[in-house]
């Protein structure tokens, strides 16, 4: 039964009261209360059930007093004060989820509101804790004419998630779709624990994708970044930016692209220390990952950007004398790793396809504390060394603790800093073992061990020469013997 009420003298505007529904619910509640004694015994022994029924009736009255819920078609409100929600939906700010009109101002307003700290809690000194505030893109595609920026006041514990951003045709070519950068000259950190997750960023061949500047503990997760002209992701200053589960490409391709020779740009540009790139694919760019910061980790990355044969580089470590980088379990698909004056470099567990290799480039002639071990190389019978020295700018003159060993290859030339070989001679006094085709450095044997197995006599013998990576053993009398020699270049 529905009762309709007109406006009364008290100004009430309730148009419809669901009395019939109320009566029905009360009937059920009371009926349940009356049924309890019959099932459970004497009512006095079932006070717990009676209290439960009473609480249900109180909850029913409270919910009715709160009034009817909003209809599904009601418009969302920008204000979050009523529910204290810290999730800011950009469509509530007027952003166009179809990508037809410019949504830059609307999204930046949502970001600005999210940066109003709910309390006086802080993370790092001077960085407000935003309590996990989230700007949600509501699964839409938004046209952007200028960067989405975080307020210069700084903050942390914040995320942007769930949608796509498209650069407009007049987007600045020297900017990025999302910028964690206040353009402040201060050296202090501005942003901490910022998460960019589940985003597609299309730079429309204008600028870059994401710029993380002067920030710490930033996460870029499950992002697809394409059509950039500068960098897909740039990390500058700060430290501990973690990039994972991402896909980056200047052009959307799956290999064998007819325009591959013309690829430009850099997938990821690490210009700061202590960052990590994991489980990420760079499928088109001139350079997959450029590293000019220290103490970075690259793991589980698949680089098939511009092939090295076309002038591309998979991973370029461009910090001469201070690399401090670990590259682990990566797939270098037609693209090489290049390291300039490497110091403290570790490369292991990687797969190099189609003549992709490791190039150690001399700038000031320094190479120290380098491990290139336990990798797999597959070539094209082109005579390419698995590890190559580029000494076009000068020889490596300072060499210490360089270990290249335990690698395997097919259709490429194995190079190592240690080798073992044997030679036999009948009635001779000289045994020479040539390691020049095996050893990495052209004329640098640091240690030699050998065993001399003569047939019947006991001659005196000695190591006489290691020039040109050739080891010469001589005896005092002619003898038939087999010589086993082990050498290494680890110590210079």
TrEMBL record:
Q: Which PANTHER family match?
A: POLYGALACTURONASE QRT3 (PTHR33928)
Which UniProt key words apply to this protein? Lyase
Report which superkingdom the organism of origin falls in. Answer: Eukaryota
The species this protein was found in = Rhynchospora pubera
One Gene Ontology molecular-function label: lyase activity
Transmembrane segments annotated in the record for this chain: none
What InterPro entries does the database record attribute to this sequence? PbH1, Pectin_lyas_fold, Pectin_lyase_fold/virulence, QRT3-like, RHGA/B-epi-like_pectate_lyase
The chain positions of domain Rhamnogalacturonase A/B/Epimerase-like pectate lyase read 90-310
Protein name (Swiss-Prot/TrEMBL) = Pectin lyase-like superfamily protein
Q: Which SUPFAM superfamilies match?
A: Pectin lyase-like
Q: Name one Pfam family in it.
A: Pect-lyase_RHGA_epim
Q: Which Gene3D superfamilies match?
A: Single-stranded right-handed beta-helix, Pectin lyase-like
